Amino acid sequence: MMMPKGFKATHEQIGTGKPALVFVYDPNLAVSHTQTEQMNEARVHLGENVHLLLARVGTPEGEQLIATHRAGPAELLLFDSSGSLIKRQFAVKGANEIIHWVQ
User: pLDDT by residue (tens digit) across 57-103?
Assistant: First the structure.
């Protein structure tokens, strides 16, 4: 299964002045596709006000973020503009929920 388009799987944008929403993406879980669809829908409303990122299970970058924050597959992690983890929740979170959660 390919990585969804429009999402970075690197995490250098965390802590760069905007909130960052990171989804722990596992290509073996159907919920991963549903969650990225909801994130894409939220992106239309959030614009450039937030970084929407993926931590892909099984990749070095993804596994490092997952280990650092003790995250699980299909978990959403919200970082504030300075890079502190402020919220976490398991998927699926709808587009409207994402918008309210981030703002």
Answer: 999 999 999 999 999 999 999 999 999 999 999 999 999 999 999 98
Q: Residue with structure tokens 């919920």?
A: 31
Q: For residues 93 and 78, what is the distance between their CA atoms, to the nearest angstrom?
A: 12
Q: How far apart are CA 93 and CA 2, in angstroms?
A: 21
Cα 68 to its chain centre, rounded Å, is: 15
Residues 6+ apart with CB under 8 A from 58: none
- Strands 75-79 and 51-56 come out as unpaired
Q: Does pTM top 0.90 for this prediction?
A: yes
What DSSP letter does each residue of 33-89 carry, written as one string?
Answer: HHHHHHHHHHHHHHGGGSEEEEEETTSHHHHHHHHHHT--TTEEEEE-TTS-EEEEE
Would you give the DSSP letter of residue 7?
-
CB atoms within 10 A of CB 45: 13
